[in-house]
Amino acid sequence: QGQLVESGGGSVQAGGSLRLSCVGSEYLFSSKFLGWFRRPLGKELEGVAAINTRSGAIDYDDSVKGRFTISRDNYQRTLYLQMNNLKPEDTALYYCAASLGGRDNAAGPLSRTRYGYWGQGTQVTVSS
Fold it and tell me: How far apart are the first and last CA of the chain?
């Protein structure tokens, strides 16, 4: 069934950019939804961006609209999150996820319950 492996995290100053990557198996990349989530230290997991692989529709959390861009390369089986104009409040552990095996197929694309497979996470730290 495979796994998801994130990379690209790091430490940047406010206003900087990072691009996260997530490589997965062909099986997982056949999921209806692929998404990025984040967990700030001491806070709940929150949905950041998601793409419907059937329709191409994309959803973003309001906090990242206009700054973050989700995209995918099916040939490379890679999901990306381009993050521009980063803010200190973007500091978090970022996870990619695939919706296969999710426990709630009626949940929205930014809901954690929609997703059944998760990567191990990559840390993003933004200093002011």
Answer: 41
In single-letter form, the type of residue at position 85 comes to: N
d(CA 41, CA 65): 22
Residue with tokens 């989530």: 37
| CA–CA separation, 59 and 126 (whole Å) | 23
The label of the residue with tokens 């978090």 reads 92
Q: What is the mean pLDDT of the chain?
A: 96
Render pLDDT for 11-57 as a digit per residue (tens, 0 to 9).
999 999 999 999 999 999 999 999 999 999 999 999 999 999 999 99
In contact, 7 and 80? CB cutoff 8 Å: no
Q: How far apart are CA 116 and CA 122, in angstroms?
A: 18
Rounded CA gap, 69 and 66, in Å?
8
Report the alpha-carbon distance of residue 47 to residue 13 in Å, rounded: 23
**Residue 48 and residue 27 in contact, taking contact as beta carbons nearer than 8 Å:** no
**Helix segments in the chain, DSSP class H:** none
> In 3D, which of 70, 122, 63 has the Cα closest to residue 94?
122
